[in-house]
Records
---
Amino acid sequence: MNTQDLEKKFQDRIDAGEKIEPKDWMPEKYRKTHIRQISQHAHSEIVGMLPEGNWISRAPSLRRKVALLAKVQDEGGHGLYLYSAAETLGISRDELFNQLHTGKAKYSSIFNYPALTWADIGAIGWLVDGAAIINQVMLTRTSFGPYARAMVRICKEESFHQRQGYEILLTLCNGTEVQKAMAQDALNRWWWPSLMMFGPRDEESPNTAQSVKWKIKRKTNDELRQQFVDNTIPQAEILGITVPDPDLKWNEERGHYDFGAIDWSEFWNVVKGNGPCNKERLAARNAAWDNGAWVREAALAHSEKQAKREELKQAI
Ligand code: FAQ
């Protein structure tokens, strides 16, 4: 079959709702798009451990510490499922890490903002995990099998994360005036960066059209962003805190909230490596890699020893 026929057959499978598996024929661009998106997603999960990991030792009670520890550990696990899904497309884990450590690979803009107070941990769970779920529920139906299957489990865990964040804020908002002010301050700082997580506006998103055609994306960046705003505003009302957007208004005709303009220059500045914590995050990931070298070497030496023992046993 020539390439044109193969591509047609491939698109027919996608249109029929079939899942594409690693050994199936796929256009090179489909493979590359997946390596790009899945690896950026994996990097986001493990870089995303840093802002919250910083608060594990300062959580205000044992219950909060246990929950946060479990959450951060889950994010590490998500990274591992995703790196494994990316590896099925023919790229090695070492290469993926190398792309992250050298700054070649992107990861979500949101993790380049600092977690300054305990309320930020609530805001990250509520808003950042909340945004991630909206994006990832869509991805459970994505056309590439290993990615879609990884997303099912990840979404279940993310919804626990979202609730633990919301509960932190609910407690603060029902607390003292100072605690409520802390929650409001966290919402003020995390609101706009959370809206940016969904990526550029559809007309400025170079990858969306093809990704929608291949059912990698089932919804566009703007559709998901709108869904997030619509879901989140009633939750802010229950907390009794205000979203920092004077243009936010329910639009009866559209059946959606209208919201103000996003500062895209801030978004691109962060994506290009100049956000408040980009350098710190990259340095932390590099240090973790370097400091873990002895563990990787020891694990390798151990497995070689085991293999030799096994060989000797077989020979006897
Ligand atoms: N940050 O054409 P599009 C989480 C880049 S996981 C940085 O629209 P696409 C869990 C984009 O890569 C959060 N870069 O691209 C958690 C592209 O650049 P490229 C991560 C961004 O791929 C919670 C360029 O802009 N989730 O939070 C961003 O079709 C708490 C043009 O954009 C995922 O990765 C951004 N926000 O759509 C963990 C989900 N947005 O590669 C710890 C999977 C866009 O051409 C604690 N990814 N860019 O050089 C996706 O769904 C998509 O990749 C989008 C972007 C929707 C993010």
Note: The two ends are 52 Å apart (CA to CA).
---
Amino acid sequence: SESLQVGELAKKLNKETSEIIKKLMGLGIMATINQELDKEAIELIAADYDVEVEEEIIIDETEFENYEVVDDEKDMQVRPPVVTIMGHVDHGKTTLLDAIRNTKVTAGEAGGITQHIGAYQITNNGKVITFLDTPGHAAFTTMRARGAQVTDITILVVAADDGVMPQTVEAINHAKAAEVPIIVAVNKMDKEAANPDRVMQELTEHGLVSEAWGGDTIFVNVSAIKGDGIDDLLEMINLVSEVEELKANPNRTAIGTVIEAQLDKGRGSVATLLVQSGTLKVGDPIVVGHTFGRVRAMVNDLGRRVKSVGPSTPVEITGLNDVPQAGDQFMVFADEKKARQVGESRSKKQQDAQRKESSKLNLDDLFNQI
Ligand code: GTP
Ligand code: MG
């Protein structure tokens, strides 16, 4: 804050209010105890006591925490759904996403295991869908634990020959806790041992009852490898997303969440962001978690340079002073000075917290040695 009352200043300096009032009078300022002092007056008095004034920047953290920024209903426009594919190891998450994209991510991955969260967009019948490919459920869990809600729909992949496994159940629990609708993709239908009825039966025990059995969970039989059932699955995603009435205001400064981030030798800090509301533009002053900067360049999921992206769009940005974490929220500011202030304040807070944590650890180590 830029101003302080006389009484408050006296308290901060550990002096009598009357003494401060006298000093102010000496400076030609007639003041009462409740008088607001401007920055200049505060600095003059402080200098007189040999005290350095450190400006305290008050950051409205609720701006960050309160994700559901209230927008006028008339500004809201339909946005693409953000879909997360979850399921047990090897049940075919990446292969399914490949089938959807018609590309070969699996072939390029080391050992065929998902190394990072990819975020991609496809268009089906003129409607855009955003997909997140998660390595297991770690990313989903980390993001949720950090207060970020990025997923609109979960595709639960269950291999028809393997059935419900521990991570299938975990995925169901995550989706339920986040109140995200689930579409079940019964995969590997091409296999001889495929038994979709068994999958339905097992999922019933976890509260997912197929529409065919009088429940309200959508089941789609697919073969990711053969490409069977993919169109049906996409159709169902469009249907669920219509029911959910997903909307955002594209005409505001962008907010959203970090999907992944790393340090790149050539480009510095590189972060994949999911814009959740507003439009993100090159040149925007931005705070991302405890990092900040100006959006230097943006690259979309096809590796193409873009100048601006709207809601539900994943984009890779450069220009941050440091590497943020997955699940961090980002926010664009009207001017760079404000972004820097907020960024530096958050960075300092984070460092303080880390220092506290490490000194605690040191003490613990000490006690353990005794
Ligand atoms: P993680 O990322 O390690 O959790 O695995 P994932 O769920 O992404 O599975 P992935 O797509 O890597 O597939 C695992 C194995 O199952 C691979 O050998 C795939 O070729 C195979 N697979 C995936 N979908 C199908 C399918 O529809 N039919 C058959 N027969 N095999 C499939
Ligand atoms: Mg995978």
Note: The longest helix spans residues 336-369.
